[in-house]
Write a sequence for this structure.
């Protein structure tokens, strides 16, 4: 998936806005609204905004770590220097990578 998103890091600003700071000030990317049920749960809105920012900011590093793990174990296995990844672990890593890259499982 080509990365056409707003550059990172993303931050949380006032009013539960997810922003990207730049030289011209904050660029608002999204605002976390209250859930569809009655009342405004500030703790939940805050947690949701923090979760979005953490997920976005760690996305590239997690993809690289999974890709490296798969390549490293394949290389070690080909050389006879290591054991192959257990099938379930390899399947889980590949499924996570597909999800992270925007593909369905």
């Amino acid at each position: 998936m080509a990365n056409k998103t707003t550059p990172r890091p993303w931050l949380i600003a006032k009013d539960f806005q997810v922003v990207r700071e730049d030289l011209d000030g904050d660029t608002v990317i999204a605002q976390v609204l209250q859930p569809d049920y009655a009342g405004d749960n500030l703790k939940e809105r805050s947690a949701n905004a923090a979760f979005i920012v953490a997920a976005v900011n760690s996305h590239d590093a997690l993809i690289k770590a999974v890709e490296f793990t798969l390549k490293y174990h394949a290389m070690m296995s080909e050389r006879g220097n290591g054991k192959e990844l257990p099938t379930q672990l390899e399947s889980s890593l590949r499924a996570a990578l597909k999800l992270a890259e925007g593909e369905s499982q």
Residues 11-100 form one domain. The chain has one domain: 11-100. The radius of gyration is 19 Å.
